Amino acid sequence: MIESKLPATGTTIFSVMSRLAAEHQAINLGQGFPGFAMDGELIDLVADFMRKGFNQYAPMPGIAELREVIADKIYHQYGHRYQAESEITITAGGTQALFTAITALVHQDDEVILFAPAYDCYAPAVEVNGGKCVWYDMPWPDYRVNWDHMKKLINHKTRMILINTPHNPTGTVLHEEDLRELERLVRGTNIIVLSDEVYEHIVFDDMLHQSVVRFPELVSRSLVVYSFGKTFHATGWKMGYVCGPEDLMREFRKVHQYNVFSCNTPIQYALSVYMKNESHYQELSSFYQKKRDLFLKQLSGSRFKVLPSTGTYFQLLGYESISMAKDTDFAIELTKEKKITGIPCSVFYPDHADHKVLRFCFAKEDVDIIKAAEILRNV
Ligand SMILES: Cc1ncc(COP(=O)(O)O)c(C=O)c1O
Predict the structure, then answer these.
(1) For position 16, what pLDDT does the model report?
(2) What spacing in Å lies between the alpha carbon of 324 and ligand 1's midpoint?
Protein backbone atom coordinates (compact mmCIF):
# COMPACT_ATOMS: atom_id res chain seq x y z
CA MET A 1 0.00 0.00 0.00
CA ILE A 2 1.52 3.31 -1.05
CA GLU A 3 1.13 6.17 1.37
CA SER A 4 0.40 9.10 -0.97
CA LYS A 5 2.25 12.36 -0.42
CA LEU A 6 -0.74 14.12 -2.03
CA PRO A 7 -3.77 12.12 -0.88
CA ALA A 8 -6.29 14.81 -1.82
CA THR A 9 -4.92 15.38 -5.32
CA GLY A 10 -6.53 13.73 -8.35
CA THR A 11 -6.11 14.17 -12.11
CA THR A 12 -6.13 17.83 -13.13
CA ILE A 13 -9.48 19.14 -14.31
CA PHE A 14 -7.90 20.22 -17.59
CA SER A 15 -7.15 16.62 -18.55
CA VAL A 16 -10.60 15.51 -17.41
CA MET A 17 -12.52 18.18 -19.35
CA SER A 18 -10.32 17.91 -22.46
CA ARG A 19 -10.91 14.17 -22.59
CA LEU A 20 -14.67 14.71 -22.23
CA ALA A 21 -14.64 17.43 -24.92
CA ALA A 22 -12.86 15.09 -27.36
CA GLU A 23 -15.25 12.24 -26.55
CA HIS A 24 -18.29 14.42 -27.29
CA GLN A 25 -16.76 16.44 -30.15
CA ALA A 26 -17.35 19.62 -28.17
CA ILE A 27 -15.61 22.94 -28.89
CA ASN A 28 -12.92 22.97 -26.20
CA LEU A 29 -12.61 26.39 -24.58
CA GLY A 30 -11.51 24.62 -21.41
CA GLN A 31 -7.76 24.20 -21.44
CA GLY A 32 -5.76 27.43 -21.88
CA PHE A 33 -3.76 27.03 -25.04
CA PRO A 34 -3.79 28.85 -28.38
CA GLY A 35 -5.91 27.19 -31.02
CA PHE A 36 -3.94 28.72 -33.89
CA ALA A 37 -0.51 28.42 -35.47
CA MET A 38 2.58 30.02 -33.95
CA ASP A 39 4.93 32.23 -35.97
CA GLY A 40 6.75 30.28 -38.71
CA GLU A 41 9.76 32.59 -38.33
CA LEU A 42 10.41 31.21 -34.85
CA ILE A 43 9.97 27.62 -36.06
CA ASP A 44 12.49 28.29 -38.88
CA LEU A 45 14.97 29.72 -36.39
CA VAL A 46 14.74 26.60 -34.21
CA ALA A 47 15.17 24.35 -37.27
CA ASP A 48 18.20 26.40 -38.40
CA PHE A 49 19.88 26.09 -35.02
CA MET A 50 19.17 22.36 -34.92
CA ARG A 51 20.71 21.91 -38.37
CA LYS A 52 23.71 23.98 -37.36
CA GLY A 53 24.33 21.46 -34.57
CA PHE A 54 23.06 23.23 -31.45
CA ASN A 55 21.63 20.02 -30.08
CA GLN A 56 23.56 19.25 -26.91
CA TYR A 57 23.09 20.37 -23.31
CA ALA A 58 22.81 24.10 -22.74
CA PRO A 59 24.57 25.58 -19.69
CA MET A 60 22.60 24.90 -16.48
CA PRO A 61 21.08 28.43 -16.11
CA GLY A 62 20.45 28.82 -19.86
CA ILE A 63 22.52 30.22 -22.71
CA ALA A 64 24.09 33.61 -22.01
CA GLU A 65 22.72 35.18 -25.23
CA LEU A 66 19.11 34.53 -24.21
CA ARG A 67 19.61 35.69 -20.63
CA GLU A 68 21.14 38.94 -21.93
CA VAL A 69 18.15 39.56 -24.21
CA ILE A 70 15.79 38.92 -21.29
CA ALA A 71 17.75 41.29 -19.02
CA ASP A 72 17.43 44.06 -21.64
CA LYS A 73 13.75 43.35 -22.22
CA ILE A 74 12.91 43.53 -18.52
CA TYR A 75 14.96 46.67 -18.07
CA HIS A 76 13.10 48.43 -20.89
CA GLN A 77 9.72 47.26 -19.68
CA TYR A 78 9.97 47.50 -15.93
CA GLY A 79 13.05 49.65 -15.22
CA HIS A 80 15.11 47.13 -13.25
CA ARG A 81 18.24 45.48 -14.63
CA TYR A 82 18.77 41.87 -13.58
CA GLN A 83 22.29 40.47 -13.90
CA ALA A 84 22.02 37.91 -16.71
CA GLU A 85 24.76 35.77 -15.19
CA SER A 86 23.44 35.40 -11.67
CA GLU A 87 19.79 36.52 -11.64
CA ILE A 88 18.04 34.89 -14.63
CA THR A 89 17.50 31.16 -15.22
CA ILE A 90 15.81 29.50 -18.20
CA THR A 91 13.26 26.87 -17.16
CA ALA A 92 11.08 24.15 -18.65
CA GLY A 93 8.02 26.42 -18.60
CA GLY A 94 6.42 28.46 -15.85
CA THR A 95 5.27 25.32 -14.03
CA GLN A 96 8.79 24.00 -13.46
CA ALA A 97 9.95 27.45 -12.37
CA LEU A 98 7.14 27.62 -9.79
CA PHE A 99 7.73 24.09 -8.52
CA THR A 100 11.48 24.58 -8.28
CA ALA A 101 11.11 27.93 -6.51
CA ILE A 102 8.77 26.44 -3.93
CA THR A 103 10.96 23.36 -3.46
CA ALA A 104 14.07 25.48 -3.03
CA LEU A 105 12.58 27.94 -0.55
CA VAL A 106 9.74 26.37 1.42
CA HIS A 107 10.79 24.33 4.47
CA GLN A 108 8.76 21.82 6.47
CA ASP A 109 5.81 23.57 8.22
CA ASP A 110 6.45 26.92 6.54
CA GLU A 111 3.29 28.77 5.60
CA VAL A 112 2.64 29.96 2.06
CA ILE A 113 -0.17 32.42 1.43
CA LEU A 114 -2.15 31.66 -1.72
CA PHE A 115 -5.04 33.61 -3.22
CA ALA A 116 -8.18 31.67 -4.08
CA PRO A 117 -9.22 30.98 -6.74
CA ALA A 118 -5.73 29.87 -7.80
CA TYR A 119 -4.05 28.16 -10.70
CA ASP A 120 -3.95 24.51 -9.76
CA CYS A 121 -0.21 23.78 -9.64
CA TYR A 122 0.62 25.95 -6.61
CA ALA A 123 -0.91 24.08 -3.67
CA PRO A 124 0.41 20.58 -4.51
CA ALA A 125 3.92 22.03 -4.87
CA VAL A 126 3.69 23.57 -1.40
CA GLU A 127 2.23 20.43 0.17
CA VAL A 128 4.61 17.92 -1.38
CA ASN A 129 7.42 19.99 0.13
CA GLY A 130 5.92 19.85 3.63
CA GLY A 131 4.66 23.44 3.56
CA LYS A 132 1.21 24.59 4.62
CA CYS A 133 -1.12 26.50 2.28
CA VAL A 134 -2.86 29.43 3.93
CA TRP A 135 -5.67 30.66 1.74
CA TYR A 136 -6.99 34.16 1.20
CA ASP A 137 -10.34 34.13 -0.62
CA MET A 138 -10.57 36.97 -3.11
CA PRO A 139 -14.08 38.37 -2.69
CA TRP A 140 -16.43 37.24 -5.43
CA PRO A 141 -17.47 38.62 -7.93
CA ASP A 142 -14.85 41.35 -8.43
CA TYR A 143 -11.88 39.41 -6.98
CA ARG A 144 -10.18 42.56 -5.62
CA VAL A 145 -7.85 41.84 -2.71
CA ASN A 146 -8.73 43.48 0.59
CA TRP A 147 -5.20 43.88 1.92
CA ASP A 148 -6.37 44.65 5.48
CA HIS A 149 -8.06 41.26 5.56
CA MET A 150 -5.24 39.52 3.80
CA LYS A 151 -2.62 40.82 6.19
CA LYS A 152 -4.28 38.99 9.10
CA LEU A 153 -2.95 35.75 7.61
CA ILE A 154 0.67 36.81 8.00
CA ASN A 155 2.59 35.51 11.02
CA HIS A 156 6.13 34.43 11.92
CA LYS A 157 5.69 31.17 10.00
CA THR A 158 4.84 32.91 6.71
CA ARG A 159 7.68 32.06 4.34
CA MET A 160 6.14 33.06 1.04
CA ILE A 161 3.28 34.94 -0.61
CA LEU A 162 2.40 33.69 -4.08
CA ILE A 163 0.74 36.22 -6.35
CA ASN A 164 -0.44 35.89 -9.94
CA THR A 165 -1.15 38.83 -12.22
CA PRO A 166 -2.75 38.83 -14.78
CA HIS A 167 -4.71 36.20 -12.96
CA ASN A 168 -5.82 32.76 -14.03
CA PRO A 169 -8.70 31.88 -13.76
CA THR A 170 -10.39 35.24 -13.08
CA GLY A 171 -8.86 37.41 -15.83
CA THR A 172 -8.29 40.22 -13.31
CA VAL A 173 -5.05 42.16 -12.84
CA LEU A 174 -3.39 43.69 -9.79
CA HIS A 175 -3.23 47.50 -9.79
CA GLU A 176 -0.37 49.74 -8.75
CA GLU A 177 -2.01 50.34 -5.35
CA ASP A 178 -2.21 46.56 -4.78
CA LEU A 179 1.52 46.20 -5.28
CA ARG A 180 2.13 49.18 -2.97
CA GLU A 181 0.01 47.47 -0.30
CA LEU A 182 1.94 44.26 -0.73
CA GLU A 183 5.18 46.21 -0.45
CA ARG A 184 3.97 47.69 2.85
CA LEU A 185 2.92 44.29 4.20
CA VAL A 186 6.24 42.57 3.60
CA ARG A 187 8.46 45.48 4.64
CA GLY A 188 10.64 44.46 7.61
CA THR A 189 9.82 40.73 7.24
CA ASN A 190 11.72 37.80 5.67
CA ILE A 191 8.78 36.91 3.46
CA ILE A 192 9.62 35.90 -0.10
CA VAL A 193 7.24 36.84 -2.92
CA LEU A 194 6.77 34.36 -5.73
CA SER A 195 5.17 36.26 -8.59
CA ASP A 196 3.57 34.32 -11.43
CA GLU A 197 3.50 36.73 -14.36
CA VAL A 198 3.18 34.30 -17.25
CA TYR A 199 0.46 36.49 -18.82
CA GLU A 200 2.51 39.72 -18.58
CA HIS A 201 1.88 40.53 -22.26
CA ILE A 202 -1.87 39.94 -22.19
CA VAL A 203 -3.36 43.00 -20.49
CA PHE A 204 -6.34 44.90 -21.90
CA ASP A 205 -7.95 48.34 -22.05
CA ASP A 206 -4.62 50.25 -21.97
CA MET A 207 -3.79 48.96 -18.47
CA LEU A 208 -0.13 48.50 -17.57
CA HIS A 209 1.10 45.15 -16.33
CA GLN A 210 2.09 45.77 -12.70
CA SER A 211 5.09 43.52 -12.35
CA VAL A 212 6.73 43.21 -8.94
CA VAL A 213 9.86 44.15 -10.88
CA ARG A 214 8.62 47.77 -11.01
CA PHE A 215 8.76 48.00 -7.19
CA PRO A 216 12.27 48.16 -5.67
CA GLU A 217 11.29 46.70 -2.31
CA LEU A 218 9.46 43.83 -3.94
CA VAL A 219 12.08 43.05 -6.56
CA SER A 220 14.69 42.51 -3.86
CA ARG A 221 12.65 39.68 -2.29
CA SER A 222 10.86 38.15 -5.28
CA LEU A 223 11.28 35.36 -7.75
CA VAL A 224 9.32 36.25 -10.87
CA VAL A 225 8.11 33.61 -13.29
CA TYR A 226 7.51 34.02 -17.03
CA SER A 227 6.51 31.66 -19.86
CA PHE A 228 7.63 31.72 -23.50
CA GLY A 229 4.76 29.35 -24.22
CA LYS A 230 2.13 31.95 -23.31
CA THR A 231 3.85 34.80 -25.12
CA PHE A 232 4.81 33.04 -28.35
CA HIS A 233 1.81 30.69 -28.81
CA ALA A 234 3.99 27.67 -28.08
CA THR A 235 2.68 26.16 -24.86
CA GLY A 236 3.82 22.69 -26.00
CA TRP A 237 7.45 23.79 -25.95
CA LYS A 238 7.29 24.14 -22.14
CA MET A 239 9.88 26.91 -21.98
CA GLY A 240 10.01 29.82 -19.55
CA TYR A 241 12.32 31.68 -17.20
CA VAL A 242 12.64 32.98 -13.70
CA CYS A 243 14.31 36.14 -12.41
CA GLY A 244 15.32 37.14 -8.91
CA PRO A 245 18.07 38.55 -6.76
CA GLU A 246 21.26 36.53 -6.50
CA ASP A 247 20.63 35.10 -3.01
CA LEU A 248 17.25 33.67 -4.05
CA MET A 249 18.51 32.57 -7.47
CA ARG A 250 21.42 30.70 -5.89
CA GLU A 251 18.94 28.58 -3.92
CA PHE A 252 16.69 28.19 -6.98
CA ARG A 253 19.58 26.86 -9.07
CA LYS A 254 20.59 24.34 -6.39
CA VAL A 255 17.31 22.55 -7.09
CA HIS A 256 17.04 23.41 -10.78
CA GLN A 257 20.39 21.78 -11.60
CA TYR A 258 19.13 18.46 -10.29
CA ASN A 259 15.56 18.44 -11.49
CA VAL A 260 16.07 19.46 -15.12
CA PHE A 261 19.74 20.56 -15.22
CA SER A 262 19.17 22.62 -18.37
CA CYS A 263 16.51 23.31 -21.00
CA ASN A 264 16.06 22.88 -24.74
CA THR A 265 19.15 24.25 -26.50
CA PRO A 266 18.00 25.09 -30.07
CA ILE A 267 14.87 26.81 -28.77
CA GLN A 268 16.98 29.00 -26.50
CA TYR A 269 19.20 30.08 -29.41
CA ALA A 270 16.15 30.74 -31.58
CA LEU A 271 14.48 32.84 -28.89
CA SER A 272 17.63 34.87 -28.32
CA VAL A 273 17.36 36.06 -31.94
CA TYR A 274 13.57 36.25 -32.21
CA MET A 275 13.04 38.28 -29.03
CA LYS A 276 15.23 41.12 -30.26
CA ASN A 277 12.21 42.21 -32.30
CA GLU A 278 9.92 43.73 -29.67
CA SER A 279 6.87 43.63 -31.91
CA HIS A 280 6.84 39.85 -31.35
CA TYR A 281 5.48 40.44 -27.87
CA GLN A 282 4.38 44.09 -27.73
CA GLU A 283 1.39 43.43 -30.00
CA LEU A 284 0.06 40.51 -28.02
CA SER A 285 -2.32 42.51 -25.82
CA SER A 286 -4.11 44.09 -28.77
CA PHE A 287 -4.20 40.73 -30.57
CA TYR A 288 -5.98 39.09 -27.63
CA GLN A 289 -8.12 42.13 -26.82
CA LYS A 290 -9.67 41.80 -30.30
CA LYS A 291 -10.46 38.16 -29.51
CA ARG A 292 -11.98 39.05 -26.13
CA ASP A 293 -14.08 41.78 -27.73
CA LEU A 294 -15.25 39.46 -30.50
CA PHE A 295 -16.25 36.82 -27.93
CA LEU A 296 -18.17 39.38 -25.84
CA LYS A 297 -19.88 40.94 -28.87
CA GLN A 298 -20.99 37.53 -30.06
CA LEU A 299 -22.25 36.71 -26.57
CA SER A 300 -24.45 39.76 -26.33
CA GLY A 301 -28.03 38.83 -25.55
CA SER A 302 -26.98 35.60 -23.84
CA ARG A 303 -28.21 34.70 -20.36
CA PHE A 304 -24.66 34.26 -19.09
CA LYS A 305 -23.34 37.03 -16.86
CA VAL A 306 -20.06 38.42 -18.14
CA LEU A 307 -17.44 39.08 -15.43
CA PRO A 308 -14.86 41.65 -16.62
CA SER A 309 -11.68 40.18 -18.11
CA THR A 310 -8.81 42.68 -18.06
CA GLY A 311 -5.96 40.26 -18.74
CA THR A 312 -5.04 36.64 -19.69
CA TYR A 313 -6.98 34.84 -22.41
CA PHE A 314 -9.76 33.76 -20.10
CA GLN A 315 -13.32 34.99 -19.77
CA LEU A 316 -15.48 34.10 -16.77
CA LEU A 317 -19.20 33.63 -17.33
CA GLY A 318 -21.73 33.30 -14.51
CA TYR A 319 -24.72 31.03 -15.19
CA GLU A 320 -26.90 31.67 -12.13
CA SER A 321 -29.80 32.86 -14.25
CA ILE A 322 -29.67 29.66 -16.33
CA SER A 323 -29.17 26.88 -13.80
CA MET A 324 -28.47 26.23 -10.14
CA ALA A 325 -26.61 23.01 -10.92
CA LYS A 326 -23.17 22.50 -9.38
CA ASP A 327 -20.58 24.08 -11.67
CA THR A 328 -18.81 20.75 -12.28
CA ASP A 329 -22.14 19.18 -13.30
CA PHE A 330 -23.10 22.17 -15.43
CA ALA A 331 -19.73 22.05 -17.27
CA ILE A 332 -20.24 18.35 -18.02
CA GLU A 333 -23.82 18.97 -19.16
CA LEU A 334 -22.72 21.76 -21.52
CA THR A 335 -20.04 19.50 -22.98
CA LYS A 336 -22.32 16.53 -23.52
CA GLU A 337 -25.49 18.29 -24.57
CA LYS A 338 -24.41 21.59 -26.12
CA LYS A 339 -20.94 20.57 -27.36
CA ILE A 340 -19.10 23.38 -25.66
CA THR A 341 -16.52 22.96 -22.89
CA GLY A 342 -15.47 25.39 -20.16
CA ILE A 343 -13.77 24.85 -16.81
CA PRO A 344 -15.85 25.01 -13.59
CA CYS A 345 -14.23 27.61 -11.34
CA SER A 346 -14.85 25.68 -8.10
CA VAL A 347 -11.81 23.53 -8.98
CA PHE A 348 -9.60 26.55 -8.36
CA TYR A 349 -10.74 26.81 -4.71
CA PRO A 350 -9.40 24.63 -1.88
CA ASP A 351 -12.96 24.25 -0.52
CA HIS A 352 -14.52 24.00 -4.03
CA ALA A 353 -16.54 27.19 -3.48
CA ASP A 354 -19.17 27.23 -6.21
CA HIS A 355 -20.20 30.69 -7.41
CA LYS A 356 -21.82 29.26 -10.57
CA VAL A 357 -19.04 30.49 -12.80
CA LEU A 358 -17.28 28.82 -15.73
CA ARG A 359 -13.98 29.83 -17.33
CA PHE A 360 -13.70 29.97 -21.12
CA CYS A 361 -10.44 30.38 -23.06
CA PHE A 362 -10.72 32.73 -26.07
CA ALA A 363 -7.22 32.04 -27.47
CA LYS A 364 -8.88 30.42 -30.45
CA GLU A 365 -9.44 31.08 -34.16
CA ASP A 366 -12.16 33.68 -34.71
CA VAL A 367 -14.43 31.12 -36.41
CA ASP A 368 -14.26 28.94 -33.32
CA ILE A 369 -14.93 31.90 -31.01
CA ILE A 370 -17.99 32.79 -33.09
CA LYS A 371 -19.23 29.18 -33.12
CA ALA A 372 -18.70 28.82 -29.37
CA ALA A 373 -20.45 32.11 -28.59
CA GLU A 374 -23.40 31.14 -30.76
CA ILE A 375 -23.86 27.95 -28.75
CA LEU A 376 -23.55 29.84 -25.46
CA ARG A 377 -25.99 32.54 -26.62
CA ASN A 378 -28.59 29.85 -27.11
CA VAL A 379 -28.16 28.20 -23.72
C1 LIG B 1 -1.20 31.24 -14.04
C2 LIG B 1 -0.35 30.24 -14.74
N3 LIG B 1 0.90 30.02 -14.29
C4 LIG B 1 1.71 29.13 -14.89
C5 LIG B 1 1.29 28.41 -15.98
C6 LIG B 1 2.21 27.40 -16.59
O7 LIG B 1 2.99 27.91 -17.62
P8 LIG B 1 3.82 26.92 -18.54
O9 LIG B 1 2.90 26.34 -19.56
O10 LIG B 1 4.90 27.78 -19.13
O11 LIG B 1 4.38 25.85 -17.65
C12 LIG B 1 0.00 28.59 -16.48
C13 LIG B 1 -0.48 27.81 -17.63
O14 LIG B 1 -1.65 27.68 -17.87
C15 LIG B 1 -0.83 29.54 -15.85
O16 LIG B 1 -2.08 29.77 -16.28
Answers:
(1) 87
(2) 30
